[in-house]
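help with this record:
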Amino acid sequence: MTEKRKSIKWKLFFIILLPTALLGVAIFIFGAYLIYELASNHIHDELETTTHVLKSCFDLTVQGDYSYDGKVIKKGNVNISDPSMLYDIKENSGIDTTIFWQDVRISTTVEDEHGVSAAGTKAEKVVSDAVLKKGENYYSVDVMVNGSRYIGYYTPLRNEDQTVVGMVFAGKPINIVYRSVGEIVLWFLLFTMLAVLLALVICRKFTEGLISDINRIKHFLHTISDGNFTVSIDDEITKRKDEIGEIGVYADKMRHDLKALVELDALTSLYNRRSCNNRLKNLQEEKSRFTIVMCDIDWFKSINDQYGHDCGDYILTDISSRIRKSVEGCGFASRWGGEEFLLIYETAYEQVKEKVEALAEQIRDNEFAYDGKKFHVTMTFGVKEAKPGVNYEKTIKAADDNLYTGKRNGRNQIVY
């Protein structure tokens, strides 16, 4: 677990997890607050509207002042304290309503836990002071009504001379309101949690893809550090349009440059002796069929002495290019040392003979031109087919012996 926590995968995960979780908490808190505010405003408007509609029904339909005879409240000569209309309101909206004479409940839908009506009970002093004495509307999110906590709205009942004689109340029990708001908040919490979870899943999928590509680059670089330059980086990485893609491109360029530096001869761009030996070991381990050709430029020292080392480099480069074309698609070649080359053909022996003879003839017939001077160059070849179970170094020795046989016999020839 300690090792995992140290990896970039876990660091990225926690970097994403923390702000995502904090964002989720912030969204939930803000959302819950917003839901509460909206619910509070909605309840306020709903209760206010109910009280004003109820009072308007009295004022618009019945003429005269309010009066109370100790039993019922009348508006003019009409009894308005019949609770039937109040219970209709409760049934349709869930809102409790009350008609007060002064601070006493005369007609009400409010009942205690045993179903006993709150008629005859009094309003709280803070309500009476605000509505009856000051003639103001009163709204509270926590008012006691007959021993129960309510969200309530009170508005004064006025006679034509504006004397306040009573109140109209509309309210909802706090526990019912909070339960409804709580259900909405709970659903919002679930939505927020799902949104955060989805964000984390998406982020984790993204980071896993990112880490996967980083690990592939890591494996690629590790393989190169072991000296294997034949590997290639995944195209999916180099095609990315971000920094990871750029790293992949640079890593592949580094592989190419290192391969040229470590495996190739700087002048001829053929394999050097070390890398050629490594490739021959692989061929032998794979039990592949191949033929070794050792060749040497004839009288190369005389060319250097007569035309200079720059001319010698020019000849080496030109002949290397011809050798590379000869083995292309069927083998590889290396600069074995000085003007000596080692060619490996991975094809049928008869085809090797044809290719070597064509190469020798091509070099022999070519007219080299350097610094205004023209001349011909020849090469001597020693050819030996590798036998199963025989160490490749012995095959090289045999090809080298054939080369020196050709040298002793006059050069400019192929010895099999």
